[in-house]
Amino acid sequence: MTTLTSGPSPAIDSTPALTCTPTGRWQRRRRDLCHLILRRIAISIPLLLAVSAGVFFLANRSPFNPLTAYLGDRYQATSTADRASISAALNLDAPWWNLWWQWLTAGARGDLGQSRIYTQPVTSVFAERLPWTLLLSATALALAALIALLLGTLAGLRPGSWSDRLCVAVSVVVQAVPPFVLALASVLVFAVLMRWAPVSGATDPGAAYSVGQVGRHLVLPAVTLAVMQVPWLLLAVRSAVAETVGSAAVRGARTRGLTRSTVISKHVLPMSLTPLVTLIGARLPELIVGAVLIEEVFAWPGLAAAVVDSAKAMDFPLLAALTVATTAVVLAGSLLADVLYLLIDPRITADV
Predict the structure, then answer these.
(1) Do 56 and 138 reside in the same domain of the chain?
(2) Is residue 4 in some structural domain?
(3) Which of 154, 212, 253, 317 could link 113 by a cystine bridge, Cβ 3.0 to 4.6 Å?
């Protein structure tokens, strides 16, 4: 017979454990999010400063003469004295670090400078062209994520089936095709030969901007840009779904008599979203490069033309603003992916 003896009671910690209650878990999750955001901001600020300084340094070391690009055909007819006065007026003779500091201090006040090639403020160039680039990129990204989620889930649910092999094969082929070839092929097949979509621009010549006009012109470039991104996302979703289908959680759900649709919606799809969200953030640079290429091929009125023109003309204020903006978008996309990753998967901590 076991005898119960009394003794000193063990010390009990009355401090509530944060991980034991939903409120405590949310407080810890919120704290992790704040730490993550603050740490990324602290890293991003010096990085953006270094990128902007690097633009001015490389542009200054470039063999291209910005005055030649600014004057164009008038360069040969312009006298040496006039060239010198124009160069002084445009502040082209100043050291690159001086130009960079002037641009940086003015940018802190909201003045990004004057674009020489467009003869208007850089902020006006962004205001006119950025919405078109965002419309194209957001539409393409949404289409790519939707297609990858549907086809990746279909392939991952039946590993080794004909649908799985077909999705993998098509993804590998599309990955191997250069983006400019895919863009030109889309124009040739769907716009020129089949006439299913307009060749270029955001509207028909002489037509006013409207939802119908813009939507009809948006379809082909957005789908082409989405197809460029689908293979990577599809393969990631397919791998995650295939791994989840064979997990103990899914097998246990099946043994409890849950329907196939319930198992997919409650167990499979949530796990497939994690790599999809992470990869979208990692693929943002590729999306931006693809958007620039698509805008050039389809003559879409976005920032692509401004990027090319500013690089050719060594338009320092516009070139620096575009480069810093692109870098900021990539950093923001990476941060957004990590934040969503942290919210979707409760096992992840702020060490991501």
Answers:
(1) no
(2) no
(3) 317
Max distance between CA atoms of the chain, in angstroms, equals 114
Asked if 332 and 296 sit in the same domain, the reply is no
Q: Which domain holds residue 161?
A: 122-313
Overall number of domains in the chain: 2
Domain assignment present for 117:
no
Residues 309 and 322 in one domain: no
Ramachandran angles phi, psi of 11, nearest 5° = -65, 130
- DSSP state at residue 73: G
* pLDDT, tens only, 108-122: 888 888 887 888 898
Entry pTM = 0.75
The β-bridge partners of 121 are 114
Q: Is 313 within 8 Å of 66 (Cβ atoms)?
A: yes
Helix (H) or strand (E) holding 296: helix 284-298
Say if residue 161 is in the same domain as residue 214.
yes
Calpha distance 84→270 (Å, rounded) = 64
User: Which residue, 31, 78, 47, 91, is CA-closest to 331?
Assistant: 47
The string of DSSP codes covering 161-205 is: SHHHHHHHHHHHHHHHS-HHHHHHHHIIIIIIIS--S-SSSSS-T
Question: Per residue in 258-271, pLDDT tens?
Answer: 777 777 777 777 77
72 conformational bin, left if phi > 0, alpha if psi -120 to 50, beta if neither: left
